[in-house]
Structures are given as C-alpha cells and as structure tokens.
Amino acid sequence: MQFQTIEPSYTSKEGCRLVWKGVDEDDTDVVILNKKELEDLVEIFKKNSTGEVELEDQSSFIRVNSDVTQFTLTNHPLLEAQTTDLQQQVLEYAKVPHEPQYVYIGSKEFYPSVWIRKDDKVQEKFSKTNQKQSLIEAILSSEPEKIKQDLSPTDLFRVFATRRSTRKFDKTKVEDWKVDKILSAADVAPTAGNFQGFQVFLIKNKNTKEALVEAANKQPYVNAPVVLVFCTDPSRVKLKFPPEILEKFSLQDATIAAAFSLLAASGVGLSTIWIGMFDEEKVRKILGTDLRPSSILCIGYPDKKKPPKSRRNLKELIKVIE
Fold it and tell me: Where do the Nitroreductase domain residues begin and end (predicted)?
C-alpha cells in the first residue's frame, strides 16, 4: 500500500482525505482528517520537525518521523508514507482553500481507517427523532401504504454516490431478506412493453459457482456469497418487431434489471461486482439453459468499505445539443 495523494473532504472545506493505493485496482485506503488534525499536521511540517497528531477516536495517531510518517490506527493495519512526499503534498494543499467534493454522504461515514466512538444517548435520540425511511427502502418496501410522502430524494442519490465495486468479499452470509429485496428490485425494473424479457438465475450451489469462475476467465470473486446471472429472454417480448429488435429489447431489459439489483444491494449495505467478461456458451452449459447470459452480478459484504472514486466532470461527460 503506497501513499498516493491528498484530496478535499466530501463534507467540509477544512478537512482532507489522505489516499493510499495498492497493486489491485480495488485496493484503496483512506484516512479522513478533520480541521484540527490537518492543522496539527501542517504545523509539524512547517517546522520541519517530528511529532504526533492524535486523531478523533483518541487512540489512533499519526507519528511524523524524519524519514517515514506512520499512521497507527485502531483495528487497522499500519499505514506509512514517505515524510518528504507527504510533507510536500500537505503543505501545498494547505496553501489554498478547497471546496468539498460534491458527493452526498454523511460526515465520517467512509472512515475505514479510524474508529469513531458512538455516543449511545445521541444515537438513541437520533433513532427516535429521525423516523424517515431511506428512499431505497421505500422503493423496495413490501408495505407501500406505510411509506411517507415526504421522503428526501437525496437518500437515493446517496446510494448512487457511495456505491463501490468490490473484488474482495467477506465470508459473512447475506441475509435472506436482503436477497429478496435485491430480486424484488429486478422485478420492478422497467422493461420493453412490460414483458420482462429476461430471466435471473440465483446460484446457491458451490460447484456451480466454481464452474462460473472458470467460465468468467477465472475471476475468483465470481465465487461470491450471492451470485445472480441475468439472461435475455426475447421470447417473452410479445411485440411485433423483427427478431433482432426483440433481442435488443431483451438485452436492455436484462441490463436494467441487473442495474436495479446492483443499486438495491448497495441500499441494504452490501457491495457488488458486475461481471461482463465470460464465455457465453460455457455459462449456458453450466446453467442448463438456451438463454443468452448478459451479466453476472456478484454480491456480498465487502472485505472493507471503500470511499467513492472520483468521476469525470459533468462538463466533460455531457454534450449539449441546442
């Protein structure tokens, strides 16, 4: 794990995010510093001295040595950065004010490296006063008559913004009710003519999962706690169009359904990885079907939470035709 960069906080102008990267694309660690912690670190670096910065949980700390700066964190492996590199980036960062990155998440929510103590009384008060469901829970609720009309849509956008793919799943079993929610999300996805031109295979068999790993270019994370294979089924699309159009509709149906399931998984605290690289004929044979597989969705609890990745600026993404 190598220190990479310093970035603005998601929620505050004063704090920052220190980012480490590993060899694997998904291997990332982040330490979030609040205003005081960052100021203390800047003060040490300005003096070209050594010292310690106590972090918010009062048991984690940053030790600045002449050669290496060590981040000793509660319930987390030691993180290190070359002091000269970290000093240069931190002092450069502190020269100008920074706007928070525009991602809607709660303060300290993605704080994988530092454990924050919870005040039970505050938590109890919050649970009594905040009676709103999240929007994703409302969408997937089996009791829609109980849903309040004043739900904030930002809850749904929070799911969008904080979703992360993972290639390392914890072995914890996913609760059945969460699997039901994920499958229910696929069922309510929009489809061509509402004919639902797709089929979902829920893979529970261990040997079948291992066979799918081989069919998916030996990607080991395909053997996840929950594995869904989405297949096209154009025979369900009863519209008067040429076969190639019905196949296109069916592929779109299966893709949208998989996306709905992916977001539902994020909404109930799980992580996913979308698999698009696989041998279609091998997957067909494994499933015992003539249907064409469009994607494999692997779901489970992440080995560790990951902060959201940076994205393209909307001005680069959107082309306006006037």
Answer: 161-219, 223-301
Phi, psi of 73 (to 5 degrees): -120, 140
- State which H helix or E strand residue 38 sits in: helix 35-46
Give 230's strand partners: 200, 295
Torsion, Cα of 107, 144, 267, 73 (10° steps): 40
Largest CA distance in the chain: 76
Span 129-159, pLDDT tens digits: 444 444 444 444 444 444 444 444 447 777 8
Question: Domains in the chain, ordered, with CATH?
Answer: 2-94 (no CATH), 165-300 (3.40.109.10)
58 contact partners, CB below 8 Å, separation of at least 6: 117
Give the global pTM.
0.57
pLDDT digits over 229-238, tens only? 999 999 999 9
Please, are residues 101 and 12 in contact by the beta-carbon 8 Å criterion? no
d(CA 277, CA 3) in angstroms, rounded, equals 31
- 212 within 8 A of 283, measured Cβ to Cβ: yes
> 3-class SS at 293?
strand
